[in-house]
Amino acid sequence: xxxxxxxxxxxxxxxxxxxxxxxxxxxxxxxxxxxxxxxxxxxxxxxxxxxxxxxxxxxxxxxxxxxxxxxxxxxxxxxxxxxxxxxxxxxxxxxxxxxxxxxxxxxxxxxxxxxxxxxxxxxxxxxxxxxxxxxxxxxxxxxxxxxxxxxxxxxxxxxxxxxxxxxxxxxxxxxxxxxxxxxxxxxxxxxxxxxxxxxxxxxxxxxxxxxxxxxxxxxxxxxxxxxxxxxxxxxxxxxxxxxxxxxxxxxxxxxxxxxxxxxxxxxxxxxxxxxxxxxxx
Length: 281
Description:
Receptor-associated Protein; mainly alpha
């Protein structure tokens, strides 16, 4: 459906795509070759979800006292849902790409250490890459499998590694590959180059864990405030205001506060989970 929509409405879709310049590259790294189709599909899925919500809220408000006000809120909620889903779809490929790179970095240090031991033991680089490809190093093994297939088909080792580095999503994997390419072309020893990349990668992983720990302390404080302090104190404040003829506290307002608190907590949990370093426990 998205493909047909993008083909018929390419002119409206292209300006939307231009608002997100990194989208095309993120989609390409994930194997998606038609960004217009992705944008069109995102618009359609967000519109359908928002329309369903709007219809449910619009007709569900028929039994309410203030029908016009509730229906206006339903339209606003639908529009807000449409924007939220659409923007999320536009940034999701970037999130997916970073997640892919993080998972690769998690296994990369172990794979490079294995390769370093093999190379220093006298095993040729190609044979070590074959062993890594057949090992259980997750995405690193998958990437090396493609390089091994190209070399087996007749490509030079340096050429295959260059192609792998150009399409890689991991910064440190690219550094390791370019180091291998440089040493192959210069005839230098591969061991020191691999050891340098391993040390840099391990230093980065240790720093990521420390940074996440510092961020987690602050996020946990915000989580406790949103889960307990702010709802209870806010409810007390509203009750006091209602005694002076201010905002009336009713069942709908209580449910709205509880729902808002739960939604905010879910967002914080998602934020904490997304920022968690991809390391083995």
